[in-house]
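Sequence only, no structure available. Ideas?
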Amino acid sequence: MSEIRFRNAAHRDFFLESMMKCKVNDCYHRAFFYVMGIAGETRQNINAMFDFKTDCIKPEGMHAGWQTSGTVKVCHLAFNLWNGYAEEGREKLFTPEELFCCEFAPYFMEGIKARYGGYSYANAVEFSAMQAQRLGWEKYGDTQYPAHVLRYYPYGRAFTSGGNQAIVEVALTQLGNEGGQPYWSWYGFGGRVEWCACFTSWCADQCGYLESGIIPKFSLCSDGVNWFKGKGQWQDRSYEPTAGNIIFFDWDGDGTIDHVGIVEKSENGVVYTVEGNSGDVCKQKQYAVGSSVIYGYGLPVY
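Reply:
I predicted one. Tokens follow.
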């Protein structure tokens, strides 16, 4: 837990004491006691919520008089991470939109990290899909669960490694999408458009890059090129790119920018990309460095 952020010293001490008391050091106990330690009220009433002798949660404690709207969310998440618990008939109260709209949200993400390992955007999507399957729902929260959680996370890129890798991690979670509806509808279009730029903009938005001005919101590839050139953040096709660079294409060599994607990596003279709207699908692709179909690169300052 050395990489986990505690809310305060009391939180840390509660976690360590509880782990010693239960004598079981696994991801279930770590996540449960981490989350239950976030609020002072839940720390003080831990015996009303957990039976150390039987090693079982006590759902009846959810309705105790000491509970507040915030501590109920703490208990909901802790129980959910423990064994997937969701109170029958009140399952909607265990969804991200309900849980993360509170002051404890930044630390909730640390609890998820304790349960599922180092968190990433992909892990968050996996968690959402797992919960939907367990509950028998078509979806858990909504299909953009990680993006909604990110609204409540003030400490930066909660689901990514940060830096130039963040947008790559986000893009990779979208592989296989067909038709691009999440991206062109997010942009504001009422029907399908050529969506490669919408996809790139959407990925940037999930990382907070639109709001911070690191990458522009654009639906036309030419607008993206002009923005990067205007900022002096541009390299031509001869450049060997790095992860997170924005790659633009000119299929016919006529100076018209036809397509855009995100550089995943570059090694051994090959550029690896993630592209939306590649045959109407989100795909990984690769090209030789300096390929004639590459128009150039936008270089975001992460």
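The mean pLDDT is 84.
Hope that gets you unstuck.
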